[in-house]
Write a structure and sequence with these properties.
This protein is mainly beta. The protein has helices spanning 32-37, 104-109, and strands at residues 22-23, 46-53, 76-80, 83-88, 93-94, 97-98, 112-123, 136-147, 169-173, 178-181, 187-191, 204-208, 222-227, 232-237, 246-251, 266-272. A five-stranded mixed beta sheet has the order 1-13-14-11-9, with no helix packed on it. A five-stranded mixed beta barrel has the order 2-3-4-8-7.
Length: 274
């Protein structure tokens, strides 16, 4: 797919209307890496995460030491790769397993669990905090859990791919350099992996190629809607695009995939017909 570099002189800022909506969602899994990197994007939202049961792990167990929220007797740590989060409010037991948060043996075994609940974020009031991030407690107020299969990155001999892959656009309509596009067109993009919907806000820029002219038309106001089910973004315009104009579409820095990896800024162009 061709990536087009757009001269700064041809760009005009456009307002993104309203929040990005995630439609058609099923039981999509949020990575612990993404959750712990940007917890403010998930606070008070329902999520489903997968990780290994670590009980109340001592600080020398090789997992980052996190203060327990002490919300319930069943509080336990869940970790995957280099990220961990506390789970609170639910007993780690099911029809074929019963784990004890105080058992060193259960913590070392590290059974895989899938946990569903609401992300909570609280500011810690202590003089030992060195920075704003150090002073935040993040945990999941769980409502359901079940046994899960090990992540492919934790299977011996299998390459850890999820931690290194960055998202890319795998499909766009109109295509790059397409001419004669209808003025009523919408813009549709599909990504190689699930994205964090909120990170699209204020990071979509659309402009006409003649935007540097004083008499140039203005891009209509637009709305962007993200669907987690299809990993796609649909951009619709409030009115038809101007005829015989080249349209530049940019996704700016700051967009992030659900696995925590950043999206590299990307752009393409197309031309409107009669």
């Amino acid at each position: 797919m061709v990536r087009t570099s757009i001269p700064v002189g041809l760009i005009s800022a456009t307002v993104l209307l309203g929040p990005i909506a995630a439609i058609g969602q099923s039981r999509a899994t949020t990575s612990l890496r993404a959750l712990t990197a940007t917890p403010e994007l998930y606070v008070n939202r329902a999520v489903t995460v997968t990780g290994r049961f670590r009980g109340r792990v001592p600080a020398n167990d090789g997992i980052a030491s996190l203060p327990s929220p002490n919300r319930s007797r069943w509080d336990f740590l869940l970790n995957a790769e280099d990220s961990a989060v506390w789970i609170s409010g639910i007993r780690p037991a099911g029809w074929d397993f019963d784990l004890d948060p105080l058992s060193p043996s259960d913590a070392r075994t590290g059974a895989w669990l899938e946990v569903t609940g609401t992300v909570r974020l609280a500011q810690r009031t202590t003089r030992t905090c060195r920075a704003a991030r150090d002073c935040r407690d993040v945990w999941i107020e769980a409502t359901d859990l079940r046994a899960a299969q090990a992540s492919s990155s934790d299977v011996p001999g299998r390459r850890r791919r999820s931690a290194i892959l960055s998202p890319i656009v795998v499909f766009n309509d109109p295509i790059n350099d397409e001419a004669g596009v209808a003025s009523s067109t919408a813009v549709r993009l599909q990504f190689s992996m699930p994205m964090i919907p909120e990170t699209f806000s204020e990071r979509i820029r659309i402009a006409y190629g003649s935007a540097q002219s004083l008499t140039a038309p203005v891009i209509p106001r637009f709305t962007a809607t993200y669907s987690d089910a299809t990993r796609s973004l649909a951009i619709t315009f409030a009115s038809p695009l101007a005829s015989h104009q080249t349209v530049h579409v940019e996704l700016l820095e700051g967009i992030v995939a659900a696995n925590g990896r950043p999206f590299e800024p990307w752009a393409f162009v197309f031309s409107i017909g009669d």
